[in-house]
Amino acid sequence: MIQTDDMLRKLNTYQRDAVLDNSPALLLNAHVGSGKTTVLISKVMYLHLVKEIDLTEMVVLTFTNKAAKEIKDRIKAENSKIKDKDMPYFGTFHSVASKLLSKVLPIQEIGYTNRFTIMDPDELFEMAYRLMIEHRFNIKFKNKLSKRMEAIKNGETLYGNMKREDDIKVLWECMVEEKRKQNKMDFDDLIVHATKLLETGVFTPKWVIIDEFQDCDRAQLALIKAMCGANTNLFVVGDPNQIIYSWRGSEKNIFQNFKRVYDAKEMSLPINYRSSSTILEAAKQFLEDSTELEGVRDEGSKIVVKNHYNPFNEAQYLCDQIKKLTSEGSVSYKDIAIFYRTQRQSKTMEDALIKEKIPVEVSVKKSLKDIPVLHWLVSLLKASINHNDKNNIITALNNKEFGEGLSFAKIRGIINNESDHTSILLDKIIGFLQANVENISEVYDYFALDDYLSPTSSTFLENKTLILDFIDSMKRYIDEKNVALTEGMREYLNSSTLYGLHILKDSIDAEDESVKLMTLHACKGLEFKHVFIVGVNEGSIPLRTSTAEARVEEKRLFFVGITRAKDTLEISYYTNPDDYRVLEGPSRFVDMLPGHIVAKEESKERQVDLQSMRKAIQKNINTQEEVAVLDEARPEEKASDETRVKHEKYGEGIVESEDEDSITVVFEAYGSKTFSKVFTSLEYLG
Ligand SMILES: Nc1ncnc2c1ncn2[C@@H]1O[C@H](COP(=O)(O)OP(=O)(O)OP(=O)(O)O)[C@@H](O)[C@H]1O
């Protein structure tokens, strides 16, 4: 047991006690940066190596695919004999529920087969809309359809009692039936159906281990409860100071309730290994209770608080700062992260970094919709392996760009044999399962995809490469899992719906040699040597909120951001935010930092005078003359559908619209993207 002894030796006493504890239910209250992930992995290894619990007898539930992957990777690194397939129930709540439904639970009892496919919220909405038209349902507040369906599902009603009820309830019942008919489940169905079937006691693992327990919602807690048999042990790890998803339904008093329901023992991990004591001192100001944050590191440097004129100045300053930090060689790009409150703030920053040739990765859960050709391909493949999937048949055929552009009525006519029209693509979809396609690489030729990608278009090669990469990634998945073609396709397509484009690349890779940009929500669980939190103005950080509870959550969110930093933390705010929702000057969060740990810096950088820049651009639009923006001669800018431009990353596209600050370009392969004019170097192709 040298391996286990070695592993245990590296832990501190608190961590070791938690790993060795034998209670049937343990709640580990882990302070920020106290080695939660380290302990969770050690616990799994200890149970496996010392207590000889098979990894298949453990369910390890996480909130992100990244966290699940990190846990599996670290276990594989500890023991090279362990492979992914040995840990079938290690994953996110949704992926584990999906695995149980397709492999373990008696799914036929709820009218499904284990070949079900997963639908994202867009697909769900499309289905609702189609049914609404087909059945001529009378639905009020159509623009609030998603919200109203959500309410119906939770047994609530929105907008009070109507004089005359509409058909929303009938639509909802029709959807439930239609999903069953098409053998499809939405994200919530995965959890709800798995919970229902688990209640029969067919699957009761020996251990259920949960990461980030503080963020579980009611449905997830029910799933956990349903899989716990009389002999199931529970090990849950969480930090009540990092609850940042209460808007998504994470349960209040979750820790107290857990202790009560499972008669659980509570232990804690109090020592923070991550941050300098100055950063911890800053973090303490944002705690709601008197939690002691004990650190082991030295004081480090002061927290820099800096003003900028506006986001453009800030972006330019950060580029200079990043160049300075990395120029000496001891800091690499991957050590640096920039956090903001809302995704829309990333645009200016990303453009500035690309312009300065600084490698950058923006963490955003991109759905397949963001790449139209892949979105279409997935519909086509989902329809081909499940002929009941009417919605995806329609989406694949109806698509004007890649499909056959057939109308809804025409498609219905062909499907129901009521029309003389034919569809080559539909014949291929229907014939797929009988066509003896043996290898996924043959899919491209089977569908003759060249013909659907407009071979003469400028984006043909780009789209073809995207499709071939996707097929290649699916092939790797099928080969690794060693599963039959259609089973592998279904599993892979389901994962692409759950994880979006991260399926092509293992999410944002902290080891990638690039500066990371992300929202405060996305930074949870990560750590970086140097962290910049931008836009710390009232109305941005914190956002304007209407309830006291939401205000407290803003504080916790800022706490999460601060505590990602290991060595340095810099906070900035705008004196001229250029957004009516955001107030000038530092927010109350800046004022909460004790003076003795703060180094205030006045910005000295060259200011971009937004007013004169705007005037110059306006003049340019009016007179169609070339003007220089930020010392750079730019070609004539005019808002015309025909204006073609080329972007370093996205290739060629057509200008859709532009205003003084931004320009929106439609790229065939990537869809519509908006850039800030100041930083984007778009090559005008005339
Ligand atoms: N016993 C230990 N000795 C030294 N360093 C440790 C020890 N335990 C954890 N660390 C280090 O402390 C840092 C934080 O650990 P980890 O990421 O596991 O914390 P966490 O509790 O998951 O953090 P958070 O909740 O903030 O996401 C990591 O860099 C980790 O390597």
From TrEMBL:
Keywords: ATP-binding, Helicase, Hydrolase, Isomerase, Nucleotide-binding
Keyword Zinc: no
Organism of provenance: Aquibacillus rhizosphaerae
Domain annotation UvrD-like helicase C-terminal: ranges: 269-525
Molecular function in Gene Ontology: helicase activity; hydrolase activity
Family of this protein: Belongs to the helicase family. UvrD subfamily.
Name of one Pfam family that matches: UvrD-helicase
Acyltransferase listed as a keyword: no
Binding annotation for ATP: 30-37
Transmembrane residue ranges: none
PROSITE patterns assigned to the protein according to its UniProt record, in alphabetical order: UVRD_HELICASE_ATP_BIND (PS51198), UVRD_HELICASE_CTER (PS51217)
Catalysed reactions listed for this entry: ATP + H2O = ADP + phosphate + H(+); Couples ATP hydrolysis with the unwinding of duplex DNA by translocating in the 3'-5' direction
SUPFAM superfamilies: P-loop containing nucleoside triphosphate hydrolases
E.C. designation(s): 5.6.2.4
Protein name: DNA 3'-5' helicase
Gene3D superfamilies: 1.10.10.160, P-loop containing nucleotide triphosphate hydrolases, PCRA, domain 4
UniProt domain UvrD-like helicase ATP-binding: residue ranges: 9-276
Signal sequence, start to end: none
